[in-house]
Write a structure and sequence with these properties.
alpha/beta; Alpha-Beta Plaits; DHBP synthase; Nucleotidyltransferase, domain 5; 4 domains; 12-stranded mixed beta sheet; 23 helices; globular; binds zinc ion
């Protein structure tokens, strides 16, 4: 028998996910000698054995991969070391350059759930149970490599039992960095806002459940930050939460104990069920059915964001409670999620009655991921816990290190290094100091993790974005990319397209090449250039940002543009005489009234003319309300048409006033938008791609796909501004990027 020797360099998600013990067990199975170790880019393996055994080993490496691991590349070469006496897991090499990937946090696995429920297991009821297949990663890691001393578990000394498991290559907890048990792990304490400790550990969870039952608003430290929690059936408490948070109508997500409980409150398809139950445990937007959830949770809309408990702590809480809860990121309105008790007390002292804390630090914050399922595919709305940091390996010859800093709203950053793109968790809207701080912190984290010194920075073209201002100060080569082009590029990348496409980018706002506000774009483009082939006729955004909240102004501005004899009395009565005069002057003299052609604003216009909403309190509110009014039986549409390059729609405001029925108006408008996309798509022999926040409107996307099923939409990456950073990176690559 000929003995062969090979060395493998494996890259991908291979650290902190049980990869080395997996390799160890395969080596045992196939009677191979050698070693496995973590290095700066991934894992190195050396094997010695018969060629047959080695080929089985290689096959199993791919076929039997642990659930959280992912092999992006595997380089094989002859190995010149021989005569190993066994197969060993070797301690991590001292790492020079840092580019091994950091995994996102994962929901508790079934093995851990079963152990937690097993009276005879030593981790029965243990609220921080985890293993190499589940539990925290990104939220506890200070630096790479992902080893215990580099995490916020470093201060906890393992007990003998835990150490034994940690050291045993055949144990599910071999090198599970956050391994602990009730004897040696972090402890829980329930406190009131005066620092009085009410109870600890399991009792604390039970007491917290009782406070929720009694109608209190509480906070609980979860995986990537604190949640604000209250009873999702108690209208009085929810109204109190809305008042205290100054959050009049933005929907809250609801956490339910089981998939059966979710089925009792929402309609859910099989695909949606598997998404809800996946190990990412995202918040999934579902259509509600009559239920006992308070209407105050998601007022005026027929959707509900639901999710299942994803940490042992959440599971135990719902075991005690047996009741749906609102679980929303604890923050001050518009600010990042709170990760420590000092901030919680400083910022939410007047909101929260009690809070459950534990003594392990959250190093990196993350929010819950939000998505919906359309036509059997995910449509990502917020990529965070469970998903990001998201690394995507692809083929290109570009050797530079590139930093893309995204847009202003729903900011996330991305880096390109060693043929891979890494997208950060959702950061937020950079409208306040705290979120801007969070942007800087995320930048620093990524630069530290990956020893990253960019050769090139990419930002948006908007001169007033915080990101643009920051980029211009860095003294590095800088490229600015048009916002909607970045949308289309990120969508092209996701669908592995490097050809000419028709990109449809619709959102609420984005800086156009002519200095006006764009957001109703049809681009014929490839990875190098774009041409704006169709767009919505611009209108004046009266008073600029004032029109974003006071959406009546959008309709009024278009009425002023129409200059015809139709009587708009019923609509105009929404304004006082003096207001009307003032706005008329603003319109005539174009005072502080930028030109805008964004479709997001047209939803505002329609909602206000339909009489269902005059002032919005959160981004996308008018679209959600119109969607809930949509009537499948109404097949008519308003006459929106292409005139040269310009899409004409301003006249439909008359028809809407004549229709005078919110359901008819909403339905005919959504039908008209679907129709114009398909009409324009049909005039090009190109793939049509949808990206931009407007397409979070499920009904709109469904109607488009009903008419033309070949149209592609952004799915895996956020369809809104959360993936602008990805598009920015793609625009900068000098060589064609292709997914393997
Ligand atoms: Zn587990
Ligand atoms: Zn222990």
């Amino acid at each position: 028998m000929i003995i062969e020797h090979f060395k493998y360099s494996v890259e991908g998600v291979v650290q902190g996910v049980g990869f080395r013990p997996f390799v160890y067990s395969l080596a045992q199975k196939h009677a191979l000698k050698g070693f496995v170790l973590n290095d700066s880019v991934g894992v190195q393996i050396a094997v010695e054995g018969s060629s047959e055994d080695i080929s089985f080993f290689e096959k199993d490496l791919y076929d039997k991969l642990p659930p959280l691991a992912r092999i992006d590349s595997l380089k094989k070469e002859q190995c010149n070391i021989e005569n190993f006496d066994s197969f060993k897991i070797v301690k991590s090499k001292n790492l020079q350059s840092k580019s091994s990937l950091v995994s996102p946090d994962f929901a508790m696995c079934d093995d851990c759930l079963n152990e937690m429920r097993d009276k005879h297991n030593r981790r029965f009821n243990y609220f921080f149970i985890n293993c190499t297949n589940c539990g925290p990663r990104y939220s506890i890691v200070k630096t790479v490599p992902y080893d215990r001393p580099n995490t916020s578990m470093s201060s906890f000394v393992m007990c003998k039992e835990c150490q034994k498991e940690y050291d045993n290559p055949t144990d599910r907890r071999y090198h599970a960095q956050p391994i602990s048990c009730e004897i040696c792990g972090p402890t829980l304490s329930l406190k009131d806002m005066n620092d009085k400790i009410i109870s600890t550990n399991l009792n604390a969870i039970e007491d917290l459940a009782n406070f929720i039952k009694d109608g209190h608003i509480v906070a609980m430290k979860g995986m990537g930050g604190f949640h604000l929690i209250c009873d999702a059936t108690n209208c009085k408490t929810i109204q109190m939460l809305r008042d205290k948070k100054n959050r009049p109508s933005k929907p809250f997500a609801v956490m339910l104990r089981s998939i059966e409980d979710i089925e009792s409150v929402c309609s859910i398809t099989d695909i949606e069920k598997s998404t809800v139950c996946s190990r990412d445990r995202p918040i999934v937007l579902l259509r509600t059915k009559p239920n006992n959830i308070s209407p105050y949770v998601a007022p005026f809309i027929d959707r509900l964001g639901v999710f299942l408990p994803y940490t042992p702590l959440h599971v135990k809480l719902l075991d005690f409670l047996q009741h749906p809860i609102i679980a929303t990121s604890a923050n001050r309105s518009g600010e990042p999620i709170i990760t420590n008790e000092e901030d919680l007390k400083a910022k939410l002292d007047d909101v929260v009655d009690y809070y459950l804390d534990y003594n392990r630090d959250i190093i990196n914050s993350s929010d819950d991921t939000v998505l919906q399922v359309i036509a059997g595919k995910n449509l990502m709305m917020r990529a965070s816990r469970g998903i990001t940091p998201l690394s995507i390996k692809f083929n290109t010859k570009d050797k530079r290190k590139i930093l893309a800093i995204g847009a202003h709203q729903k900011n996330a950053i991305a880096i390109y290094i060693n043929n891979q793109l890494i997208l950060s968790p959702f950061i937020g809207d950079l409208d306040n100091i705290s979120t801007i701080d969070s942007f800087h912190k995320t930048l620093k984290t990524f630069i530290d993790f990956y020893d990253f010194e960019p050769d090139l920075i990419i930002c948006d073209k908007h001169p007033l974005y915080e990101t643009t201002k920051w980029a211009k100060k860095q003294n590095k080569p800088l490229v600015q990319v048009q916002h909607h082009y970045a949308h289309v590029l990120s969508c092209m990348f996701e669908h592995n397209l490097d050809e000419q496409v028709l990109g449809v980018a619709w959102d609420g706002t984005g800086y156009g090449d002519d200095g006006t506000i764009w957001g109703g774009e049809f681009f014929v483009c490839d990875r190098v250039k774009y041409e704006r082939v169709a767009y919505f006729e611009p209108f004046l955004l009266l008073g600029g940002d004032a029109s974003i909240k006071d959406i009546k102004r959008v309709a009024l501005s278009i009425i002023f543009d129409n200059k015809d004899d139709v009587v708009y009395d019923s609509f105009l009565s929404k304004f006082s005489k003096s207001q009307l005069n003032l706005l008329k002057q603003i319109h005539e003299k174009r005072l502080n009234s930028p030109k805008c052609s964004a479709v997001g604003r047209l939803f505002d216009m329609v909602a206000t003319v339909a009489g269902v909403c005059d002032v919005v309190s959160y981004d996308g509110e008018s679209g959600l309300i119109l969607e809930s009014l949509y009537d499948e039986n109404i097949k008519d549409s308003y006459d929106i048409y292409l005139d040269g390059k310009i899409i004409r729609y301003k006249h439909i405001i008359k028809d809407m006033i004549i229709d005078n029925n919110s359901k008819i108006i909403a339905s005919k408008f959504i039908n008209a938008l679907a129709k114009i996309i398909v009409e324009i798509s049909d005039t090009y022999n190109l793939k049509t791609l949808l990206s931009g926040g407007v397409f979070q409107n499920r009904t709109l996307v469904e109607k488009i796909l009903e008419k033309k099923g070949s149209i592609l939409f952004q799915s895996r990456l956020p369809i809104n501004d959360g993936s602008i950073a990805v598009g920015q990176i793609i625009s900068a690559l000098s060589h064609k990027p292709t997914l393997p």
